[in-house]
Amino acid sequence: MFICNFKVNKKLIYKLLFSILFLLAIIIAFFAIYKVFNYEGIDDSIPVPDISVIDSKNYTNVLKSVHDNLDSYVGQQISFVGYVYRVYDFSDSQFVLARDMLIDSNKQTLVVGFLCNYKNASSFTDGTWVNITGKITKGNYHGDIPIIEITNMESCDKPTDLYVSPPDDTYIPTSALF
Fold it and tell me: Of 2.102.10.10, 2.40.50.140, 2.60.40.10, 1.10.287.3510, which CATH number belongs to 51-164?
């Protein structure tokens, strides 16, 4: 019969076990730090549409945001409905694509909208409801303002929601219109 006796050094085993766990923790920490600072995972950004459609619910919020942050919206394609509104000092190619904003409960309104530029604008009379598609540019009309360079403009029916509300305080502008 063969008997093998060997002595177990408990202190050495504890030191070895502690060293292995410590090295494992350091490797996990470095791996986590590497992943945090070199993350190239899934692109979870919100895709920006080619043409943003403005409706009566977000009309004044978008209008205010574009006026407040014009440089970040230059080049954005938009589409929306409004009526042709002109003032005496506009050129033949200029008009405001307007909507009526309710300012109190007695249906008092204020005309709001984007200044637009379109080569065939004179073929549309004041008050005509139109649907436009165009690009936001930076222009000058008594100071820097957004001007919509229209690429497509066509007559349309008067919408059922004629009035827009004033911009609310909860609207948070983003890099895109929506």
Answer: 2.40.50.140
